[in-house]
Design a protein that fits this description.
18% strand, two-stranded parallel ribbon, 5 helices, 7-stranded mixed beta sheet, Rossmann fold, binds S-adenosylmethionine, alpha/beta
Length: 200
């Protein structure tokens, strides 16, 4: 059946293109599209609750991946607006599909370094070691002083975490910062060597 063969070939080509796009974006960003677990997402929510966000806060999820953390945030903060930004096309479209009925979610495909984050009332991220220093500098430019930032697994070196949560699992710890969270010389930081989370 030639029609069936053409359909199957087209399907395979589309699947291959999406797989290739994941590999290319990962090579550019240095970050694979891993999802946060339910427990990790719950820790991020707990830390944001500690930050006493406004009811209708604008929360940016930088690198929204397949949408797991966006969904957890949208459920935990139903009156907030969750803005997810994701560069990789396949994860982006899957997260669009997963959040299609969530009125408080806005997803954008693109590079979070290229968008305006100045109206953020909170930021979350689950990235890797490599982008953390660059992201810290970007947030320095973008965020109002005191904006809560929660980093999952990979923390900001040279910044002082105000609180942290140790999830079960090898990488799951999350840290809350009140940006720019510059370290003073007094007192121990929560990001000391020997802790589980990766740091920049
Ligand atoms: C480890 S995943 C985390 C996914 C999601 N935040 C979660 O917790 O389930 C990180 C995502 O960030 C995306 N990413 C990395 N750098 C990015 C950038 N500069 N702009 C947009 N997305 C980026 C990657 O493509 C990847 O999907």
């Amino acid at each position: 059946m030639p029609g069936y063969d053409v359909f199957l070939t087209a399907l395979l080509l589309i699947a291959a293109a999406f797989c290739l796009s994941i590999a290319i974006v990962q090579a550019i960003t240095g970050v694979p599209p891993l999802s946060s677990t339910v427990i990790e997402a719950a820790d991020v929510v707990t830390l944001l609750r500690q930050a006493n966000l406004a009811e209708q806060a604008v929360i940016y999820e930088l690198g929204a991946g397949w949408g797991s953390l966006v969904i957890a945030l949208a459920r935990a903060f139903p009156n907030a607006e969750i803005r997810g930004i994701e560069l990789s096309p396949l994860p982006y479209w899957v997260s669009r599909l997963r959040t299609r009925h969530m009125a408080n979610v806005v997803l954008r495909r693109g590079n979070f370094y290229h968008g305006d984050l100045s109206d953020a009332q909170a930021v979350t991220c689950y990235l890797m070691i490599k982008p953390m220093p660059k992201l810290a500098r970007h947030l320095d430019q973008m965020l109002k002083p005191g904006t809560p930032v929660v980093a999952l697994s990979f923390w900001f070196r040279d910044r002082e975490a105000a609180a942290s949560r140790e999830s079960a699992g090898p990488l799951g710890a999350a840290a809350l910062y009140h940006w720019p969270a510059r370290k003073t010389d007094q007192g121990p930081s929560l990001t000391q060597p020997g802790q589980t989370p990766g740091t920049s």
